[in-house]
Amino acid sequence: MRKWKWLTLLAAASLLLGGCAMGGASGTKTTQGIAALDDGNYSQAQQLFEEAVQENEEQMLAWRGLGLADMGLAQYEEAETAFQNALDAADEKMPENTQDLKLYLAAVEYRLAEYEKTIDTCTEILDAQEKGVADACYLAARPENAAHQLKELSALCDEPQEAAGAYSKFLFMRNYREQSVRESRREAERYEALLGETPYSHDQRPRLPEKKLRIGYLSPDFRQHAVAYFLAPLLRQFDGSRFMVFCYSTGKPDAVTKRLRSGMVTWRDLRGRSPRTAARLIAEDKIDILVDLSGHTQESGLPVLAYKPAPVQLCGIGYMNTTGLKAVDYFLSDSVCLPVGDPAESGFTERILRLPHTHF
Hints:
Helices cover about 50% and strands about 10% of the residues. The chain has 15 helices and seven strands. Helix 13 (about 255-260) links the parallel strand 2 (about 245-250) and strand 3. Helix 1 (about 1-15) runs parallel beside helix 6, helix 6 packs antiparallel against helix 7 (about 115-130) and helix 9 runs antiparallel to helix 10.
């Protein structure tokens, strides 16, 4: 039962935030549509799923795929209709597998500012489960309930990585409610113990003043995302005579990814890699400074940083609170977000690096 609840939470979170784990018979329009979704080609996917619906392929999968394609094209009214049709098809054949579809529907309703409908849909999800789903609580404007559920789920997990993942989401949700500086730091520091990883040692690493510094950026958001827009100038305008830049991507690529890859950077796709393997690959690249851009957000890279694959590690841009990890040395900020002397600084386990104008 514990394992089932945890897997349900993971499935709900991944589906709601853009995952498209779908099955389909080989060679069908549905399968081709799934491939187009994975490539970020939403227009082609939309056409393929429309054909799948007309050809009476598996209706729940076809309508769900069409809803995802509509969402990718920001056609939310069409997506709402598609997900409702998918729910109708699922109710006839597999009524027990409707939760992910309801989460999709709630997300679309929220985008359409249909808040009462969003709350009603989320309430249906909450009523269906003893402890509920954290994402549903979040969509229903109940972040404190979501945080509580995630913390409980973390305590119930048998695997350390799963426990740490749930707890990381708990820390993210806690940012939506006021908390004392001391409490915030204490909660964050518990995260490291859940990971329990032994970090790399860099004591024997030679220091060569004249060599190029190797800078690594780790993120799931080298895509259509705010972080990518802040990062783009850093990937275009660095001094190639002094620096080598590496990007470690853990998220799905899209058109923005392709533009970012066109610069003078070394690109590493870490999707599907375990934190241990990802850390080893970064260490083999001999990165001098590793910058995490996600913190405790979705698809966090912090389990990788826990291994300390680079001698200097910092976090910034994509997250505004402490990571709680001793392996993270610095946190990027500025005098506006975190003024000198602000008591909030004591809530960080990292040293604060204030950039002169803005850290974005």
